[in-house]
Fold this protein.
Amino acid sequence: MNKTIKLAFLAMLFAAPVAMGASHDEHHKDKKAEAPATAAAPAAEYKYKTPKLNRAQFDELLAKPEQLTIIDVRRPDELTTKGGFPVYLSIQSTEIEKSLAYIPKDRNVVTVSNHAGRAGAAADLLASKGFKVVGAVGAQNYEEEGGKLTKIAPPEPKK
């Protein structure tokens, strides 16, 4: 039975990039909201109750990994192109509410997206459901502040 569960998990993990491509349009507006600021458009204002963490604040939490759960709400293609943190739960922002049973309630939770927009929304939802949310972080903001992201290479297609 345990082997069956592991196989099912691996199948879901490798099927996620294909499935997420089908819902690209649904996430397109989130991606626009988190687009980096250009000379013509200012950065989107962070408007969530959950604090947006800077690199120093997040590094302090990372120093105690046994107390922390990191939930990355980005699409798999964003993880492979931009990078992320070495250990995290990958739950897309639209799946957070359906995945509450899989998120530990006995740890501090930090949510991650590119610039913390989707992460802030997910964090506020989790906090409203009783999770110990301590902040939201933008992976790209973290990297811009000198933090190091782990680059994740997608698996080679089977021949």
